[in-house]
Amino acid sequence: MYKIPAKSLFVGKNLVFLPECHSTNTYLLDLVRAGSVPEGTLVITHNQTAGRGQRSNQWHAEPGLNLTFSILLTPRFLAPKDQFLLSKAVALAVADTVADFTSVTARVKWPNDVIVDGKKASGILIENQLEGSTYATAVVGIGLNVNQTEFSVPTATSLRRVTDHELDLNNVLESACCHLEARYLQMKSSQWQMLNYDYERALHWRGERHQFSARGRTFEGVIEGVDERGFLVVASERERQAFDLKEILYLN
Ligand code: BTN
After folding, report:
1. Could you say which DSSP state residue 120 is in?
2. Ligand 1 centroid to 59 CA: how many Å?
3. Peptide bond into 38 cis (omega under 30)
4. For 36-55, how does the pLDDT look when each residue is reduced to its tens digit (9 = 90+)?
5. Residue 195 C-alpha to ligand 1 middle, in angstroms?
6. Surface-to-core class of residue 202, CB atoms within 10 Å of its CB (0-12 exposed, 13-18 middle, 19+ buried)
7. Fewest C-beta in 10 Å: which of 101, 142, 204, 209?
8. Which residues does residue 234 pair with via DSSP β-bridges, in sequence order?
9. 11 C-alpha to center of ligand 1: Å?
10. Under a CB-based contact definition with an 8 Å cutoff, are residues 134 and 157 in contact?
């Protein structure tokens, strides 16, 4: 159903299409555990029945209208302490993909939701496997809403909602593979400054005053950026704090 991307070097060259699947991340993790799978292997389905999201959330996508896929990367060159860089690279690749098909500038809501026109169009779930102190494999799961127009929550959107026309899923997948590969190679060739710069620039709410809830209190603050651990740095009138995943909630 999906074409092997012509323009990428390794991402998507080994493509597994499943008409239906519980979770492409779980499927690919099982493949990796079962034996040798080449880097760049892509598992994609038309109908993901038990899509998994961050913080044990579920990911729902209407069958046949969106992209739900997972890619295997082997970032052995990256120290586990630097793993947030991969998260940045993937989120930027999805934002780059959105830029290929819409005139809207996508933003990245920390850590890696992709926001289009103020709403979430894509979610990313990266599942890492370490071997001792080596970052052995990363299963990168991407859900990108493409042609779905109705959502059960008002905070979700799709590319079609902003372009007003239907998009070819194969074209969007090809673009995503190429951008993912380009951002990954940027990381591999130590162009971290560029990734950090692009990520900060794309960061949703950066430099704006908003309300947050964290550590038992609600406060107003301004997102300044992300530190080298990947913690979100927020300055309030009282202090400047760095928050780990799950520690802070965006309010309004
Ligand atoms: C999130 O926003 O919470 C992350 C959602 C990630 C969803 C994708 S869809 C393809 C891959 N398979 C899964 O089970 N989850 C990811």
Report:
1. E
2. 6
3. no
4. 899 999 999 999 999 999 98
5. 22
6. buried
7. 209
8. 223, 241
9. 18
10. no
